């Protein structure tokens, strides 16, 4: 039990500090709050994180995915290969453009999409592959980009949980035709709400800028049909403050994870695996609990250790996907996905943890013992 002066350790802890508040107030006082110079400066600095790719800021990670699929002309009749073990936004973006999500299984070690399953799922209708860098671990992009090249498919990276993750030195968001990031408050950095699209091709970047703003570059000279998914300058100013702190926070997450992995010894707990060449940035520190997960979570909560399951229901089992598939008699064989959904628990790993927080987490996990 936590003692009276020990507050529970939250699973996530978004930072809205004085600098973020001052940045937002500065923009509010300027009177110019909609997309403007702050957004442009945010895009320019974010490019440093993705090998200098073109960056287009939008109002959420979901909008980033949606717009990128639109810009790649993916739509009705197309299939996009995506892991079911992800946040619903990955597949929602596919359905929002009228394409079909083809769900594939994950690698049980990294929780990211299994490249062999990706290749097996390709059909003449496949237009793109959407790997998800789940929990901050990069998907096997070397193999996935090779498969995509062989079959002439676009790769759309869902890097919404993986700011500054990398594989063999290449940052996520710099592998495929395009990558997408989220700046939701619980992500490794935020802009209140927000998202970023990172692309290699300048023409694609221009199309994305048009799509985010009613199809206009020049006011009232609409070139195409677009939406309004612009980021505000208030959000961008907060995002710039956070981006400047991201490196330090990421190092702290990696150090926190290393401590947890070194000290967690409970026999029925599997600590995160890092693939060779991968830079895992621990958006989540996710263990597998072999045994009664609900009981384990209740014990952790009782010990004041925040915990959460991402995600208890794989996307293919969510109603908007499950029901049409049932009607069409379509089933997915995703044993590793089902197993992960039943076993995973994420523990606090955020950069504000103290050494005593880390010790409490380890003690609570190890106290789960052998008889889960
Ligand atoms: C958060 C997240 C998104 C969506 O980002 P929002 O900013 O919340 O719209 C998409 N994919 C994954 C994997 C995410 O974790």
UniProtKB/TrEMBL annotation:
EC number: 2.6.1.90
Top-level taxon in the UniProt lineage: Bacteria
Residues where N6-(pyridoxal phosphate)lysine is found: 187
Claim: Transferase is one of the keywords in the record: yes
Keyword Nucleotidyltransferase part of the UniProt annotation: no
Name of this chain's protein: Aminotransferase DegT
Matching CDD domains: AHBA_syn
Requisite cofactors: pyridoxal 5'-phosphate
Key words of the record: Aminotransferase, Pyridoxal phosphate, Transferase
Cross-referenced InterPro entries: DegT/StrS_aminotransferase, PyrdxlP-dep_Trfase, PyrdxlP-dep_Trfase_major, PyrdxlP-dep_Trfase_small
Originating species: Streptomyces fradiae ATCC 10745 = DSM 40063
Active site location: 187
PANTHER family: DTDP-4-AMINO-4,6-DIDEOXYGALACTOSE TRANSAMINASE (PTHR30244:SF34), TRANSAMINASE (PTHR30244)
Gene3D superfamilies documented for this protein: Aspartate Aminotransferase, domain 1, Type I PLP-dependent aspartate aminotransferase-like (Major domain)
GN (gene name): fdtB_2
Principal EC category: transferase
GO biological process, one term: polysaccharide biosynthetic process
GO molecular function list: pyridoxal phosphate binding; transaminase activity
Entry's family note: Belongs to the DegT/DnrJ/EryC1 family. L-glutamine:2-deoxy-scyllo-inosose/scyllo-inosose aminotransferase subfamily.
